Amino acid sequence: MASPKSLRIAIIIASIREPRVAPDVVKYVTDAVSGTLADSERKITLTTIDLLDWTSLPSAPIGKLLPAHQPADNPSYSHAVVDKWSREIRAYDAYIFVTPQYNWSIPAPLKAGLDNLFHEWSRKPAMIVSYGSHGGDKAAAQLRQVLRGMRMLVQWEGVVMLPLGKGLESAIEGKLEEAVVDVWNETGKKEELVEGLQEMVEVLGRSPEELMKGEKEARERELAKREALKGSS
Q: What domain of life does the native source organism fall in (predicted)?
């Protein structure tokens, strides 16, 4: 992990289909937050991890020990690629997941990348950037639930949804239309991305006690939402 004065953040491309619009979406995200990266008092390095480079990961955990039962400080997996993946993910302080929505869900390679590890993700903040016809809200909600199950820090509203709208067909062909980008800019998506990154950096600066308090408050808010939904049904 990075030194106290520097932060390493991985931006993870969840789509591996070809053609794909994902690299263009990631470029939009990185361009949007570049000013924040440059102006931050702490050195922040943003590195792209493309799951297309990790297609040899097993589709599910293998070996006698489940990832959560591995030694937290020195996990050893029964697969060379998973060991390499573990070292890669462990090197970062936080993550930005850029994911499309497939049938109201997240792509299988992203789920596999998450499930093959546990401690490498745990106790680190995550930000979700979803995209789809209407922004990928269901994929974002599902991913948020998965990350919480892996004990990641998603207690703040770190979700940005990017609707493709009328540019969906072009996106399916791997092209991000300028008109779509214009709509994102006009509706404040750049500002949302910057705010999300700033909140992530702020979370990384919290004490363990503050993080525990934040997680407790997040659980209470989630329970309150569920109770409200029950009451309205």
A: Eukaryota
